[in-house]
Amino acid sequence: MDIYNKFASIYDELMMDFNYEDWFNYIEDIFKKYNKTPRKIIEMACGTGNLSYYLARKGYNLTCFDLSENMLSQAYGKLRKFKNVKLIKQNMIDFNFKESFDSIISICDSINYITRKEDLLQTFKNVWNHLEDDGIFIFDINSFYKLKYIIGNNTFVEDREDVFYTWQNYYDENKNICEFYLTFFFSEDGEIYERFDEEHKERAYKLDEIVELLKKAGFRDVDYFQAFQFEKPVEKTERINFVAIK
User: Fold this and answer.
1) Where on the tree of life does the source sit, at the highest rank (predicted)?
2) Cα 124 to Cα 233: distance, rounded to the nearest angstrom
3) β-sheet bridge partners, residue 3
4) Among 46, 52, 86, 245, which has the minimal tally of Cβ within 10 Å of its Cβ?
């Protein structure tokens, strides 16, 4: 099911606070730190192609996939001028390409959307199978602390010029799943507002759970940092970046 329905059309506006060029630069710093010079890259759950744009502009041979046709449609508008990009509809859990890659990347807590541990293990195995030997896997998660204590059981409201939304969250202690219920009022002309609703779920994974699953999938080296830097996470770190080497 395409959980990003009408949401895809306003996603970029809502994500204006995210600097994707800085995110791209951080990934480049990771490549340098681990002495990697990838040519072929997969971007999993590429969304509307914000990071993809910078990767494509740098000249990487890029295969981007997402489960949402609506998000891919937005990405196509940004990436169609690049000859080094493929856009494909696939799922993180069972994606399948008949080639291997130097690096696989997933950003913006897409991994948290995989709410069953067995599915996450399958995803990591699939990534491992699609990487060249010594290939690098880079991804981030919303931390357990953030989903349980910052987002969980809280309501957020934002009023922008042409978008008003409420974001209600409920945290399931037994399943460690945070459910997001979003209601949007969106206007294209500033006069008539259309309402639409979205429901999302993210699982809160503890750091050692992720490491265990990566090792079980076959990765030989696993590192983790506070996102956008190279310091180790602390108790209240909200976003954790992982680097795994095949």
Assistant:
1) Bacteria
2) 21
3) none
4) 86
